[in-house]
Amino acid sequence: MNIGSRIQARRKQLGLSVEDLAERLNKNRATIYRYESSYIEKLPVTILEDLAKALRVTPAYLMGWDDEPSAKKNDALADIILKARRDEDLIELIKELCDLSPEHRQSVKAFLAVLKQQNINNVK
User: Fold this and answer.
1) I want to staple 39 with a disulfide (CB 3.0 to 4.6 A). Which of 8, 10, 34, 59 is the partner?
2) Contacts 24+ apart (CB under 8 A), 48-56
3) pLDDT at 44
């Protein structure tokens, strides 16, 4: 399935008309038809992001890189990445976690839960 057919399939799945999608994107119907027919082969990233938002999917899904249309998991990951980009310590922690075994990650997770609870208790 190419990007145009994914756009069209998702639009129909959401019960949106071409006019509805065009309105959400501030585009005309002809542009939406061109997207869906893959007449416009290389969509700019900004358009791809806007399409993904309007269709409540990820850009990766539209591109065919991900079979899961839901953005929930990817939204959480995007939030983490945005936070990490501004925090070198967080980047180091993530790198260290990636190197741990699954068992050790669980230990870290349990320890973090204890710290979080202590923090909550101290705030009260």
Assistant:
1) 34
2) 50/25, 51/7, 51/25, 54/21, 54/24, 54/25, 55/7, 55/10, 55/11, 55/14, 55/16, 55/21, 56/10, 56/14
3) 81
pLDDT of residue 122: 81
Q: Which residues contact 1 (CB under 8 A, 6 or more apart)?
A: 9, 64
DSSP character at residue 17 = -
Count CB neighbours of 19 within 10 A. 11
Give me the sign of the Cα torsion angle 78, 81, 85, 89.
positive
Helix, strand or coil, per DSSP, at residue 7: helix
Q: Write the DSSP symbol of residue 100.
A: S
pLDDT value of position 78: 58
Burial (CB count within 10 angstroms: exposed 0-12, middle 13-18, buried 19+), residue 34: middle
Walk along the chain (124 residues) in steps of 10 and give the mean pLDDT of each run.
89 90 93 88 82 88 78 60 75 88 93 90 76
Domain covering 3-69, topology: 434 Repressor (Amino-terminal Domain) (1.10.260)
